[in-house]
Amino acid sequence: MNCSKTGGKNKMNCNHTELEINTSNCTNTDAYAYGISIDIGWFNEWIVWEGGIAFNTVYWLLILLISFIVLHILRWKFNCRLLTERLDGLEDPPPPVERTSHWVDWLNFSIDEEAIGKDGATFLWFQYRLIQIELLRMALSIVLIIMHFHSDKLGERPNKTLRSTGLYNSGINGTHGVICSAILTVLAWLMRKHGQHRCIRALASHDVDSFSSICNRRWLMITGLPISTTVDSLLEYLMCTFESSFSAKGIHREQIVMAHDLSKLLPVVDRLDFIRNVKLQINRKANKGKIFQRRFWDFKSYFKKVDAFSYYNKAEEMLAIEKDKIINNLEFTGTVFIHFDSPSEAKATKIAITRYQSNLFWKRGQLKNNQFQPSRWTVRYAPPGSDLSWIHMKKPRPMWMTMAVWLRLAIIYSIYIFMMAAPASIVRWLHLEGHGLDHGSVFWNRFVLPTLVSFFTTKLTNWVTQQDQHRRHLTVTKASLASFRSICFLEIILYLVRMMARKPLPLLLAGDFHRDDFRLECLFFPVHGSFVACCIIVNTIGGILLNHLRFDFLWSYAKKWFTFRSEEEKNVYITSYRAEYDFASNYAELVSNFALTSIFIMIFPVISLVSCVFSILRFLSDRAALTQIYPVSQIGHNLHRESINMALKFGIASPLTLLIYRRIQLGPNRNLLDPGIVAPLCLTILYLTYLIYAHFKSRGVLPKWFRRLLRIRPRNARSNEEDEEDVIDSMSNTQNEYDPVAQIREDDLCKAQV
């Protein structure tokens, strides 16, 4: 500030050089995302009040209330298993455990780990910790709202609204830095408490004596073998190359299991089991002479009568022939599993191969037999058989095909962001919006269209995320981690691009692109805070409806209904359907909402009130869904850890946003040591230092992949300790755990004897 003394009383005139962030050129790039503006008097004013927060809250809560009333009536009227019992895929589900409870207990935050399993309880406890943070942020946001409301930078007195409580109506002072530091401190403390409570080693709880992966120490998994490898050739190579090491290990031919491509076999086996279960139902009901249900496009069935049992007999024979043909022509995937009698033998063998690979790096030109290329092998303990994704285990792709997959994913993700950054432009292009002030147009534009847009956004996001499966993740844990990161980053990037663009992105694709079409200043446009708050409302209620209305099952059943040939087939499908709770997408939704709230809590503190209320509603909904709808399921330990780490990393958004806002406000010529910028800068650096320290404490100074890249390996004792830490034995001893083909043949033999 520039100050000068005037008059005899030595008064001081200070001219602040602080500038208001200019967002006059920033517009809502998608004004029709959750409603189309129609001049219908007071109703229109109420709809657009505070960016639509009030309207979306009332509208979606009404939809939720009506849906639950209808669902309750259906359950009372029909008492159908599909509406009242868990979708666990069991023909005779266990009787429900009687628990004495009062209706008030539904409103508390108790978690029944016995009913929902360990992983479900960990997920709910993570939500509970986030709710505690949201309650703190809501209390501090009320302080910010009062402080911003009584400022008069915009000169709106006495006609002030909640929009006047934004940061643009008040200058940054020490209160903002204190609030940010309080939020970050409590966030780190609660995440540490959560990690210690659930035995999860994460950034905030790096001192927890836990594990990061589960494996079977009696089995080794070797990938990267040539496709022409056979059991005999591999055994001969191992015995010749590691003769001194393997002489005491007792490895035999029967202990080597070759992994084959089962992507075509498993669907046929599932279909064959389904047909056999249908035949079993027909035998129980003695309906062998019942004509199977015809379909209008199946013209042959009108002229030839076929009883249901004969139809399914023929289908079973054809599938059995197809199954045998596929088994006889299975392709090797380049992966083998080797069994050992004790974990010590597997460990010694693993160390011997690893040492040989290290020495081989300097002797590439001296190799006589380069057929097996051991330098390309990846040797590790085998994960549990239940965690292996057999349908994605295929032979390695060539480099050009791998690059094509990555290019495909990049194109799909880019198209998704460009489309969903301005869905109203797509709505107009498809001529879906109504015109006029008649009741039909108003109802369509204000109620039906926003609901369809939100539903389409959710399903499209899930479809885009599923495209990541083309990378062929070998384990379910890796696939869930990839899905979590994909959804989380997709949503955050989508919203940030949508808010920083000055025009709808379809116009940019049409060629109307200029250098200033993306501006960081537009992130602080006042409407964006209410827009993100509305998105949190819509996404939360939409997720609750999809879970409790069992939409995934109903959609799957509707698609299969056209293929059912008998009443028994329909009953078997309903009975065997198993719904799995998607922990990855729900974790991603929680973390992305938390990150977006962290960005806007200082700019638009009203968003914290919305986030707190709907996070509590989501917790109650997820607890009921895990208890009443979804069966107990298991997920990888890494997903719980990654969600904690991601929440901690996104916590830096609050001071970083404050720092960016202040820097833009002061202009490029102001010194970084200005008192208005030092507080958020120091807080950002301090929290970033904490994250770096926590990362080094939890994962070491250098990551494993970086050490492997530089060929930096510790000495033998340290190497053994490093490979064994963070690993827990699965203690599984299932027969044919790593040989699904042998298990299929054994099941067929047992069924034939019956």
Protein model, in words:
The protein has 754 residues and is mainly alpha-helical. Helices cover 57% and strands 6% of the residues. Helix 4 packs antiparallel against helix 20. It is globular. Strands 3, 4, 5, 6 and 7 form a five-stranded mixed sheet that branches. It has a two-stranded antiparallel ribbon with strand order 1-2.
Largest sheet, if any? 5 strands, mixed
Provide a count of the helices.
26
What is the rounded distance between the termini? 91 Å
Poorly predicted tracts of residues = 1-16, 34-40, 710-723
Radius of gyration, whole Å: 31 Å
Shape, principal axes of CA atoms: globular
**Which range best describes the helical content: under 10%, 10-25%, 25-40%, 40-55%, 55-70% or over 70%?**
55-70%
Strand fraction: 5-15%
| Total strands | 7
Which secondary-structure class do the elements indicate?
mainly alpha
Q: How confident is the prediction overall: mean pLDDT?
A: 76
